[in-house]
Amino acid sequence: MPATPPSAHYRRAPHSLNGTIDPRAPSNGRLRTGRAAPTPRQEPARSLALAPSPAANSAGARPIFRVATERQLQAMCAEILDGERTSPIVGVTCRPGARDPALAVHLVCEVVWASVPIYVIEPQQAREMSKLLPDGLSAYNGAVRVWMPGVSEHTDAAWHPLIHDTTGVYGEDALRRLAAEFAIKPPGAADLTPEQQALVQVRSPPPLTVASEALLLRVGSRKDLRRLLSDLRGDRDCAIVVLTVGAGGESPAFAPVPTRAALRDPASIFVLESADLCRRLAQILGLQLAVDGGDARIFWPGAGPDSDPAEHPLVPARSAGDSHRGIERLIAAFELSRPLVRRYLAPIQTRLAALEEQSAQALSKSRESEAAQRRAVERAEAAETQLAGLQRQLAALQAAGLDTVELQAVAGMDREAVMQRLIYREWLTALEAADRRDQVLGGYRLAPQFIASVEDRRIATPTARIAFACAMVACGRAPELPGLEPHPWREGKSGGGDDPQAVREDGAKAWMCNLGHGRGAARLFYWLLPDGLVEFDSVRNHEAIGRT
User: Fold this and answer.
1) Are 468 and 431 in contact (CB under 8 A)?
2) If I label 367, which of 55, 193, 381, 420 is the partner at 20 to 30 A Cα–Cα?
3) Which percentage of the chain shows pLDDT scores above 70?
């Protein structure tokens, strides 16, 4: 950013324009403005390439120009970059594929000074404009740009407002933002009534002095904002209170006049009248000192980008209808944030912070203790559950007919090994020696979920019965036993005879056999692999063996 903003050189003076060369003038090319025609390199854009827009006919003498060719674009950019320019230039752009600007020209004419030239920039020229102007100073897709005097290669784009509507509507909100840039009429632009003159005097008061009395000032333009920034950064002894309007542009939540009456201190009160001015103030002072949306902030001496926001307190608006209580909160924040008061409060606040830290640590330890107690209870409950499972397993083994010697033998085995021992035992006891030679206990394996399904309390089937069925399936004798009745396990919800048999990706076919009688009885579900291996999948009730 340059040391002096371009707008600091801005003289809001009438800008006499006429977009054509006087045909009655001598051949030296004098314009109707009466100024000598510049050399071709310095010739203003409107005399080089531009013709007034047809809208100019209905707008009287207002200078309105259309930029529709490359030469007209070059001429317009040359005038924007003219270092001797003293008047703003307004550029309105069109949406893609359109020739009419997104923000209607006749509405722009109502809020822009009559002496300010307006350029209607067509889409193709708007896209090319960024190549001819410094970075960040172009406009396109319906946006409006105000080029203040002093555009150069190192210009800060923030000093040349861009009116961009993210909704693409470009209605009253965009028009209000544009009007804010021309809120103060230029000298000599029109004869003002006494009331209007008083308003201009309030909006553009003379510079403050440090010893001046408390003032109530309105900030409605960038000129007023620069005045506020000068006071904030200046050598002062008094506070500055900044009030803002609400998000919808309504009156300040902290009514300025009652606030001024309640504040018994030689402090200045500034009222920021637009959200755009609030954003500009935050860009310059830093986001930590931002104030907007109806809130108020108290700036004590020394405010700047490196300031601690706690030393310049923000007072939230809360409710616009709560003006009296809001003013009371503002006055309380004002009194408690005085530099002298802060010096006395600082040790108290430090001690309070230490106590809060100690309290937080004690609360954390208490919560950790409660969590440890909960974990201990959970471990005890898990141990009880495991013990109950072991007791059920022992009861099942005893019911299966294992004597004391066998129980001691299986005590050190895992659950899968115990189940395999029971299956082998049932094969030995169910078949005679001659039968065992013909019906050898074939290869089989237990699926990971099989043991858990056997121990499921909802399966009211003795473990010995399950082991017997597994032994008979593995040795191939199950089809000969009427009680088991092995049959395919079919796909589909019905599992009827018309549904195909379930087949796994590895080619294994699904089977099941009865462990009891009736639809509520349990079934042994298993897979028969292509190599003859049997995989016992699970034990489930009949209603639970549906496939979707």
Assistant:
1) no
2) 381
3) 73
